[in-house]
Design goal:
Radius of gyration: 20 Å
Number of strands: 3
Shape: elongated
Order of helices and strands: HEEEH
Strand content: 15-25%
Largest sheet: 3 strands, antiparallel
Distance between the termini: 48 Å
Length: 113
């Protein structure tokens, strides 16, 4: 983050919290079109909206006015949030097997003949 951005945030925004990915959430005294204070996230690393956990997403979009906290998950079936890994080396890649012989992975710049 540049010095100007840091100074601007320090002067005009109030820090509301952070998530497990290091994203920091802020509010501004400026009002949006609904007449509510503006909310925004400053991403840690690459700006990727899938890195915002569900409860922070709800807060950002005014679905909840409660700030999320770091309480453990309420139900045994819940999983920790993970960002979308599509396009990374960690993306899901199904195994080719005899049950699905019609599947083949798409490769960019591959020309069919």
């Amino acid at each position: 983050m540049s010095f100007i951005n840091k100074l601007w945030i320090k002067l005009f925004y109030q820090k509301e919290g952070a998530d497990q990915f290091g994203n920091v959430y802020y509010t501004s005294s400026d009002k949006n079109y609904l007449g509510k204070e503006k909310r925004f996230v400053y991403y840690n690393g690459i700006d990727e909206s899938s890195k915002v956990p569900p409860m922070w997403h709800a807060w950002l979009h005014y679905l909840s006015d409660e700030l999320p906290n770091d309480e453990p998950l309420e139900h045994s079936w819940q999983k920790e949030h993970t960002p979308n890994l599509t396009g990374t080396k960690y993306a899901y890649l199904p195994k080719e097997n005899s049950h699905d012989s019609h599947y083949s992975s798409w490769l960019p710049n591959q020309i069919k003949k």
